Amino acid sequence: MLMLTNYSLKKYHTFGTDVYASYFTEINSVNDFKALQKEAIYTSHTSLILGGGSNLLFTKNFNGLVIKNNLKGIDIVKQDADFVYVKAAAGENWHQFVLWCVNHNYGGIENLSLIPGCVGASPMQNIGAYGVEIKDVCHEVNTIDVNSGEEKKFSNVACKFGYRESVFKHVYKNKYLITSVIFKLNKKPVFNTSYGAIEQELKNMGITQASVKAISDAVINIRSSKLPDPAKIGNAGSFFKNPEVSKQKHDELKQQHPNLVAYVLDNGNYKLAAGWLIEQCDFKGKRFGDAGVHVNQALVLVNYGTANGSEIYNLSQQILDAVQKTFGVTLEREVNIY
Ligand code: EPU
């Protein structure tokens, strides 16, 4: 197995900042990982498993071993008249996997088209967009314990999915290597076009009959028009979560700010659009050197070229402080900070 030292991670994470890992290797099979687990370099260093690197920000060099998960393969594990269970290896590119499902007319993840990253990261933060989350389609997550090497399966329930949350993000952070995910997809797709922008985009496209492919195309159009392409401008999607507040807090804010963008939740609380809060604090489109806030979506922080992780982190702190001061609302970072 090739072990590189003092290796640049620039092209391995979507913020594209120039940081270095003390050691870097890639695994192409489960056996590669099991072999690595026996090596001294693994047992004596902190390690970080990297998928597409699309939800993290390095604020400094990584003093340890970075393991790029390159496990590949897409297989149907079982099916009946209604459902198909598709197993995708963790290192598969997420969007390519979505397109594979779209081309087979398997429904369930078309609303999640064009999300950057790999399959293995999708359950970690329960990726979601346009009314669909991984928790709606995830059947099982296959993992290996990074310490004992034991294989362990997590059912949907065991993943404890929440809004951009799962056990892999907190309780079991860096404890399991995700090897593959089994998705339960629909052979007779039921479409979720409840998110207004999808309906509108289908109309713009002249589509009268929804289909897996039409929805995927609509989502691709919406995302491409609003969100920066990480291949062109460094970013990690939404930097913050949309905060949840009580009804009382919501009502107070609504009185002071009649244009507040908020959605009522099943538990009676409200989710506020963090993008709106940040925009009201005048950060949208602002640039500080090469670190900035995206011009079309204030929830997305960007690296215009040579920003470093600390500059982006400091900008996120300025935003947190401003939103706290203006609205008395605490934003939480969605992106993992290293
Ligand atoms: N808004 C503003 N200003 C902005 C951005 C948003 O006023 O700069 C307001 C608008 O009223 C808009 C509303 O906020 O209608 C919601 O905006 P948007 O539809 O863009 O969605 P979001 O809540 O900002 C979430 C996810 C995105 C996902 C979209 C679509 C989070 C943290 N983000 O963003 O996910 O694509 O919904 O479902 O929940 C990601 O997680 O990386 C991500 C991009």
Give a quick rundown of the structure:
This protein is α+β, with helices and mostly antiparallel strands and 338 residues long. Helix content is 24%, strand content 27%.
Walkthrough of the structure:
This protein is globular. By secondary structure, it is of the alpha+beta class. The chain has helices spanning 30-37, 40-43, 94-103, 196-204, 212-226, 247-256, 274-280, 309-327, and strands at residues 4-8, 20-27, 47-50, 56-57, 62-69, 74-79, 83-89, 128-129, 132-133, 138-145, 151-155, 176-186, 234-238, 244-245, 262-264, 270-272, 287-288, 291-293, 300-303, 336-337. The strands form 6 sheets. A 5-stranded antiparallel sheet has the order 6-7-12-10-11, with no helix packed on it. The chain has a 4-stranded mixed sheet with strand order 1-2-5-3. The site of uridine-diphosphate-2(N-acetylglucosaminyl) butyric acid has 16 residues, from strand 13 and helix 7.
Label the structural class: alpha+beta
Biggest sheet descriptor: 5 strands, antiparallel
Shape: globular
What is the percent of helical residues?
Answer: 10-25%
Rg value: 20 Å
Q: Can you identify the CATH class of the largest domain?
A: Alpha Beta
Distance between the termini: 25 Å
> What's the mean pLDDT score?
96
